[in-house]
Design goal:
Two copies of one chain form a homodimer.
Chain A: H1 15-34, H2 41-53, E1 57-58, H3 59-66, H4 70-82, E2 86-90, E3 98-102, H5 104-113, H6 116-124, H7 128-144
Antiparallel strand pairs in A: 1-3, 2-3
Helix pairs in contact in A: 1-6
Chain A binds a DNA duplex through helix 1, helix 2 and helix 4.
Chain lengths: 158, 158
Amino acid sequence: MAETSYEALKLDHQLCFRLYSAARRVTRLYHPFLDPLGITYPQYLALLVLWEAQEPLSVGELGQRLELESNTLTPMLKKLEVAGFVERRRSAQDERVQLVSLTDAGWALRESAAHVPECLYEALGVSDEVAIALVGALDAFSGEMRSGNAGDARQERA
Amino acid sequence: MAETSYEALKLDHQLCFRLYSAARRVTRLYHPFLDPLGITYPQYLALLVLWEAQEPLSVGELGQRLELESNTLTPMLKKLEVAGFVERRRSAQDERVQLVSLTDAGWALRESAAHVPECLYEALGVSDEVAIALVGALDAFSGEMRSGNAGDARQERA
DNA sequence: GCTTAATATATCGTATACGATATAATCGTA
DNA sequence: TACGATTATATCGTATACGATATATTAAGC
């Protein structure tokens, strides 16, 4: 009955809301840099993975890195294909597997995007200390989080 | 030409991806707790604000707290209205303003949701130290971030 | 070799996000 | 007090997210 019973329900006490709003604010910051390239932020992330892999990846492999499944990736990859940045073809060894590879335009886009990270960092206007602290806190959080299938980021609890 | 020029484009170097994936993972954790209540995670956030305000709020006031605009809020609030948790009516003083208030069912839902925060925290499985560190890091980040209109969350640097 | 289980994507339905624009009501001011 | 500017929502179009299910292909067991 007392208001204090609902103390935990206050927005400012929610770690989740901080994450949720910070993620959206940062994503919005990317817009002016990615829009001229003709890609969205999630598409940019998918391209980061492909650029780094240097080889065709299956939808599942992309999904493992991005923590997304085919229900999200398939439509996005189709858009990237229509835009001319990737190609999709079935694996010869396993027809179930859809292999996603970069086109010439997809590789060329990498050069156009080369400065995006530093532009974004500049636009953020956050000091190195705070940014580094946040990265560390997020890694520790993801490492401890249950069902935080953050790949190899898991760590034993001390 | 050298691979090193693209070092910054590696996914693991992206602060933004950590934020993006951590936010999604936490949101997914809410699902089993909010689904029985018949609400989604963004709807839960909107209700948190209304429960805390204790009075009808305009779409704009809700949006300030949630960092969302009418293009997102209007459809969501209509769903909450159809679900019977809120009422929407125009302000008598200013017909432009849509006032959102809780129904009895909306207030009752607060009791059902009272344990959600601790259930979620339990489900997270993250130590207090790590959680507190992340909250601190996110607040410092949001405080410094340019156009980080984090409301009253800004804080002077020590 | 045939049938069933498992796997990899794809599809579908619903619910956000959000830029751009439209609409309606109020305000400011000549 | 008309009327253009401002303000508060709403609408529209596009692009994710994601649970649930469908489809197609391969693997496994008998």
